[in-house]
Amino acid sequence: MAPPGPLHVMAGVLRRPDGAVLVTERPPGKHLAGLWEFPGGKLEPDEIPFAGLVRELREELGIEVREAYPLLVLPWRYEAFQLLLDTWVVTAWDGTPGPLEGQGLQWHRPEALTPAQLAPADQAILRTLLAG
Ligand SMILES: Nc1nc2c([nH]c(=O)n2[C@H]2C[C@H](O)[C@@H](COP(=O)(O)OP(=O)(O)OP(=O)(O)O)O2)c(=O)[nH]1
Q1: Is the pLDDT of residue 1 over 90?
Q2: H/E stretch holding 127
Q3: Which CATH architecture has domain 7-131?
Q4: Sign of the four-CA dihedral 9, 70, 123, 78
Q5: Does the keyword section mention DNA damage (predicted)?
């Protein structure tokens, strides 16, 4: 049997007009608990990436994405599995992002984020944001 392919995970960088981006804290007991990430989650079978992004941000934050563009697809290897972190910048949404799953939420300008507090793959996303 062929080995399973990488896990396709959607991540949304919500960006406010003042340049701040939203990061959320990974809950206790989960992989990378206590580190910060961009909200999102696993793409479902047969789901197209934009639809998965919209669904995940609705489920986690209670918002409706209105405008987003793809930033990068980042292949990443953790010890137990491989990831494709499909990252979009979200520039317009309806509603106010809230912690629907009890997760910590913080807004920071990318320059103010501490890389070591982010999930390892997200440190590469941060470098892309800072370079843009
Ligand atoms: N959502 C999200 N996941 C990320 C990011 N960076 C990163 O390494 N990951 C990893 C953490 C998880 O191992 C994996 C899948 O994320 P997830 O949010 O669906 O996973 P989870 O552990 O909460 O699992 P589940 O309970 O939802 O099934 O991707 C990121 O910026 N956003």
Answers
A1: no
A2: helix 120-131
A3: Alpha-Beta Complex (3.90)
A4: positive
A5: yes
Residues in a beta bridge with 65:
93
pTM, rounded to two decimals? 0.95
The most distant pair of C-alpha atoms in the chain lies apart, rounded to whole Å, by: 50
Pocket of ligand 1 (CB under 6 A): 9, 11, 30-32, 37-38, 40-42, 83, 85, 119, 121-122
Q: Measured from the CA of 41, which atom of ligand 1 is nearest?
A: 19
The distance from CA 54 to its chain's CA centroid, rounded to whole angstroms, is: 12
The angle subtended at Cα 92 by Cα 87 and Cα 93, nearest 5°, is: 95
**ipTM of this model?**
0.94
Q: Quick one: CA torsion of 47, 50, 127, 29, rounded to 10 degrees?
A: -50
For 53, the token pair is 């992004």
For a mutational test of ligand 1's pocket, the pick from 76, 83, 86, i.e. the residue with the most ligand atoms closer than 8 A to its C-beta, is 83
Give the distance from CA 115 to its chain's centroid.
Answer: 15
